[in-house]
Specification:
By secondary structure, the protein is an alpha+beta fold. It is built from five helices and seven strands; from the N terminus they run ββαββαααβββα. The strands form two sheets. The chain has a five-stranded antiparallel sheet with strand order 4-3-7-6-5, with helices on both faces. It starts with 6 loop residues before the first strand and ends with a helix.
Length: 201
């Protein structure tokens, strides 16, 4: 039909003459077009994911549950002030930088999701940066592979820095508290003024 297909071509010499010169070459040709197309589609998909993560400034993590190894993307490391090669690929590293107040909560969220009680694992946590500062992150993840018995094998997710939003929320709460206190003081002032007026009368 005039199209091109990918072929894996293998061959070997099966006979030589007295001088060692090859007499016969035999081999196989295997059509691998489908595999090559799948590889190209996977590469394109990974590239799209990379562009999306770069655009949203999210850090990606990918946890091999059986081995305990975790892939932390370069952006994940940079969000915490690290170079990619400074981040150990382990679950233990994640928990070592997780704020102590969140450890029990995160373990519970992970367990609930691994056994299937929740469709996703998500929460807001504080992680310690390389400089020692704690920053707030939205942490989301989902099991993407299970074995035939339903046991989780692989979980992937992202973190997003929400420190600015959390600070804005805190400032709003402080302003609301100050406003309520000001209203109370104003009400007290009005009451005191009324009482003084009554005394004067």
């Amino acid at each position: 039909g005039g199209g091109a297909r990918w072929v894996l071509n293998r061959g070997r010499v099966v006979g030589r003459d007295a001088d060692g010169q090859p007499l016969r070459l035999t081999g196989t040709q295997l059509d691998i077009t489908d595999r090559k197309q799948a590889e190209a589609a996977l590469l394109e998909s990974e590239q799209r994911l990379k562009y999306a993560l770069d655009a949203t400034c999210d850090g990606l993590w990918d946890w091999d549950i059986k081995s305990g190894k975790v892939y932390f993307s370069p952006q994940w490391a940079r969000l915490l002030g690290y170079e990619p090669d400074e981040v150990p690929p382990t679950v233990e590293f994640f928990f070592s930088i997780l704020h102590p107040d969140h450890v029990a909560e995160v373990r519970s969220l992970v367990e609930d999701h691994l056994v299937g009680r929740t469709p996703v694992k998500q929460g807001e946590i504080r992680l310690r940066t390389k400089t020692g500062e704690y920053r707030w992150f939205s942490d989301r993840g989902k099991v993407v592979t299970r074995d035939e018995s339903g046991a989780p094998l692989r979980m992937v997710g992202t973190i997003t820095d929400i420190t600015g939003r959390k600070q804005a929320e805190q400032e709003r709460l402080q302003l609301e508290t100050q406003l309520r206190q000001a209203h109370k003081m104003e009400a007290l002032g009005t009451l005191a003024g009324g009482i003084a007026h009554d005394f004067n009368n």
